[in-house]
## 1
Amino acid sequence: MKTDEQLMREYVKGSEVAFGQLYEKYSPMVYGFIRKRLRTSESEDFYQKVWRQLHEKRHLYQDQPFAPWFFVMMKHLLIDEYRSLGRLNKQEFQDELIEKIYHQDLKDDGLEELLETLPKESQDLVRKYYLEGFSYEELEMETGLSQANLRQRLSRTLRGLRNKLYE
């Protein structure tokens, strides 16, 4: 089985099969990510924008880890979407913080290092919620924690990560 990075290199060269495999793998995560951040009426158009953006920006791929690169691209697109919709809110702040974490990863593989400073449970929550697109409902079923508790833990974790980023 090929890695995401191998598939992306093939896609950059024009392989539709490679694109199909990336789409199949990442489509649920992209949709989950969008579903949490936009209204249902806005989600489908934005979902299409994400895949169109990947196609248009594929030449910028520099053989770095694919998932962080792809999600940074998607975050930039989402921030542009928020601005066009006139939404400057707490969600955008959180998105910008996560974007900074991803940029840290792209520069020096700092994401894993930064996440490893967290307790294992917090690492898992951040990965599942922000990177894999799990909903609070899905995390509640998996962890047994209430949604309110999950929100509180993620909020505290984000504050801790923000503090570490700005030390």
## 2
Amino acid sequence: MSYSTETSNPSDIWATTTDLTTLRQKLLDLFCQLAYQEGDFVLSSGQRSSYYINGKQVTLHPQGALAIARLILNILPADTQAIAGLTLGADPIVSSVSVVSVYENRPIPALIIRKEAKGHGTMAYIEGPNLSPSAKVVVLEDVVTTGQSALKAFERLQAAGYTVDKVISLIDRQQGGAELYKSAGLEFEALFSIKDLQTHYQQK
């Protein structure tokens, strides 16, 4: 299903609802409509899969981005001082969460972590505001399979002197990521499991 560019009626703008249960359900609808596909796919991990989730179809969707930000802010630890993620999948997530955090009277800066060091200037791996030493940072991810992307972000942040003990993902494919994070001493939480998506997709 493609995204309609027609101007929405105010009644169609569901992402502003104050009911987080309804918000979560509408976001799940959006993932099933725009991001979830069945077929034969090769994932970034090299594994073959009978389904694929293109998270950017939702993270770059106006209502999807707002819903994601509000739901993530609701589960972020109270002492979170920044959010971060590995480019490219996490870029729209950390950006939307940071912007919406201001409207929630809880401004949280965002960091974007490069896969390779910047080739000029500061040669940095991490882009964004300079934080105080040992600042508490939560790693955000769109879809977790093996967990390697968020783990790389965690390692870069640790090397920069930040404190990281939690990863939050939009979707957990339940293929080893949670176990990897646990072995690294990281708490892990996802908005949805792959079972949530597939059950809802079949019902639709």
## 3
Amino acid sequence: MTRTFRNRVLTPQELDRFGEELDALRARTVAQIGGVDAAYIRRVVASVRYTGLFGRLLLYVGALGLALGGAFVPWMMVPAWILGTLLLGLSKILENMEVGHNVMHGQYDWMRDPHLDGKTYEWDIVATGDNWRRTHNYQHHTWTNVRGMDDDIGYGLLRLFPEQRWRPFYLVQPFIAVVFALLFEWGVAIQDLRLGRWLTGKTKHKAMWRKFVPVGRKIGKQMLKDYVLFPLLAGPFFLPVLLGNVVANVMRNLWTYTVIFCGHFTHDAEVFPKESVRNESRGHWYLRQLRGSSNLSGGKWMDLMTGNLSHQIEHHFYPDIPAWRYAAIAVEVRDICGRYGQHYDTGSLPRQFGEVVWRIVRHAWPSRPRGRRPLVRAEAQA
């Protein structure tokens, strides 16, 4: 791949102005937030509710058709199972990405709606909201792509940058990446537990148990709902409904994994050493967010299905602004980046995911860091 953009090194004055322009854009956008944003998120919440309801109803109808093999019911009842599974998967994707993720960033706290409170919202996956707010909202968004500070760099499983130290374990990471994608919600659930520290004796058993209790409680609740209670409502047709729930959750896992990895691990995404964030200015912070993020093109449907994380750059700049506004903000963000000679990484889903797959395969093998211009802190001193 040869499309790496050579970012212009900014002077300290340019870097300050870069940050000021992006801050001013944020202020103008925040001033516009109001009723239209509330109406939008309520429409999405309603869509989650009704696609989930109709999906489950069709799943029960289809389960009856599958169980009877079409002998005593119209053959159309079997495709109903497929449609029901797809609708349930769609509901879970929307809840996870457009509602859960964005609400937990506090994008709608100003509404004072207890059901959309970013500090207490609990989403429909096995991971707890509290752990996500800590590992993602704080650690990842504050220290984006800083080695040793951002646990989302490879999630402790994958080597995605040549700056990560290679170990023989990474030779099997193409296989691990596939399993991780299928079980993505489970990886998110145990991320904050840091099981490696417990297995090596660095975390005591009592401390691990205290951390696991809320996670175990959430896992139990989700498994009971999706894999016991809803299937039991189908009576003797338990197994087809159980299978539909499993497939819907896997759909959500695969899509979430794809979107998140395309937003952080494309060809031009960079990682940074700890010293790069020492005494970091606002302009430095924006520049690091820009160079560690990538966007997806695709229009309104792509924006909706990704929770507007198709605009990952804008999300990293403004994580607490209602995400549906990112598409409009992106026009000005891209212009600002262009005027300061900074690469604005965007591309189609096939291209961006192809670059992610290449990273996973390439860095399973020993590799040396690419030659780069100075990192952000050094650039400010140029």
## 4
Amino acid sequence: MTRPITAGVDGTEESLAALDWAGREAVRRGLPLRVLHAWRYTESLAIADRSTQHGWVSEGVAQAVRAVAGRHPELAVGVDVVEGEPVHTLARAAAQAEMLVLGSRGYGPVIGFLLGSVGQQVIAGAGRPVVLVRAGDRAAAEAAGRDVVVGQHGDPEDSAATLRFAFETAAARGATVRAVRAWTLPPVFAYSPGSLRLLDDAGGPEQFERQALAEALRPWRERFPEVPVAEHIEMGSAGQVLLSLAGRAQLTVVGRRAHRGAVGSRIGSVAHGVLHHADCPVAVVPHD
């Protein structure tokens, strides 16, 4: 089954930028585009019944669709205007999509469809990649030779899904993957004799991290031999290192595991920090 790229739109500048991004990506990957709007009937608008409000919403979505279809006449575009609760609507859409693309407002919570913790619930619960696009995003950044930056951590299987998404995206764009592994010195008491031996055999902590990154990248280099790869090893927190590179990236890709607590799902600190502060589009990819 061919999965579409789904873009959530609500008429905001951010969501229209997300729609533009999704349209370009769908063309590059040869996939259909699905445009989705979730709405709720507003009883306080006494002058408009449900049918009238639906008509207003549908016309607004149609205008956005006509614009993206005009830029990409070869693109197959489907439209869904759904009356329902946004989180559930987006979660269902994400499950059926190659990726879900949403708008976000800079240096703050994800908005548009999403308000406050709702955005984190969608991202934390989605089983497919979710891409967040800011209002100022333009196609020029994708054509300026910028890299697709991706964070790698742990063993190869820990970031396999994240690396796969980064390599697939770079291959579709003719871009370089800049793979980032950040590391810190753990407390000396955390070292066991076995781990100290591994570090010594590897030539020290930094060389150990370099070898770990190379091992994680090996299967993806083999699968995508046409994609140039730059390896970036840096001492520091993963969030800070990724953000230091995001300003020169056309896309930053991070992985996530959902953490569930008393107040609902939340994403990890690295994904959270990059989402709130990166000035390029950010893809959040769930671990397999």
